[in-house]
Write a structure and sequence with these properties.
- It contains ten helices and four strands; from the N terminus they run αβαβββαααααααα.
- The chain has 261 residues and is mostly helical.
Length: 261
């Protein structure tokens, strides 16, 4: 491999890793907000009756950018194989945990009185405590954080396993199958692992399952809709590396013979 090709390979990994890490961390931090999927699209509530519970598509705000994590994870898997995905996934989990430690530390810092006084009213003139609001917005329960991190790691490891198994079966063709298939399997586990760790004993099992099914329906639809984005990413990388070089490192990644920097 020439020096230029090696440099491009390094640059590609750094760019994909940066996109992956940024969106994974931000998605976890903004996950405390729950929004209505139907209202966002100006639709009526779904009112799905699942196991006796009426469920709408009320989703964590992290779901807005989490698809970007899916795409970059699959692209890293395609060009850098298991070692690339595992390393970046472990690093992401460490950085997410670090972010929450810093957030909890800042929550405990005593607020400056002038800051409280300068921000003690909303736009309608209602009084509120901005320090309390900061704590409520930024702080998340320990079980939710543990559940989210555990689900993230399990989802990523399952994703890389299924992706490579499908890669071995299909060869370089049918990118849509391994990208979408691995995401659908990994997100099925992710949807329920995080809920059971975070809410077992708080919500009845039927409600946890109902929430998980609703979340997975959303993730299923997004995974299907993201298929063109996977091909776009593949096309851009092939143009950047050169088609022959891209095919070479993709083949090395699939065989596990690629030297990882």
């Amino acid at each position: 491999m020439s020096k230029t090709a090696e440099q491009k390979k390094h640059t590609l990994f750094m760019v994909l890793a940066g996109i992956f890490l940024t969106n994974a961390i931000v998605a976890e931090i903004i996950g405390g907000k729950i929004f209505s999927g139907e209202a966002t699209l100006a639709l009526q509530p779904a009112n799905l009756n699942i196991l006796g519970f009426v469920m709408d598509f009320n989703l964590t705000a992290g779901a807005v950018i989490w698809p970007i994590v899916f795409i970059t994870s699959d692209l890293i898997n395609e060009y850098f194989g298991k070692p690339g995905v595992k390393r970046i996934s472990y690093l992401a989990a460490i950085l997410i945990a670090y972010s929450f430690v810093v957030i909890f530390f800042t929550i405990e810092l005593p607020p400056a009185q002038w800051w409280l006084d300068a921000n003690n009213k909303d736009a309608a003139g209602n009084y509120f405590n901005i320090d309390f609001a900061f704590s409520k917005i930024m702080g998340q329960g320990l079980r939710i954080i543990i559940g989210s991190l555990t689900a993230f790691l399990i989802g990523q490891l399952v994703d890389v396993f299924v992706f490579q198994k499908l890669r071995n079966l299909t060869g370089p063709k049918k990118l849509w199958l391994r990208a979408t298939g691995s995401t659908l399997v990994s997100q099925l586990l992710d949807s329920f692992v995080v809920l059971y760790i975070a809410f077992y004993g708080i919500f009845p099992n039927q409600q946890i399952i109902a929430i998980g099914i609703t979340n997975y329906i959303y993730k299923f639809l997004v995974a299907i809709l993201l298929t063109p984005a996977i091909y776009l990413g593949h096309y851009l990388i092939d143009r950047y590396l050169g088609k022959d070089q891209a095919a070479k490192i993709s083949s090395e990644a699939a065989q596990g013979s690629q030297s990882f920097f």
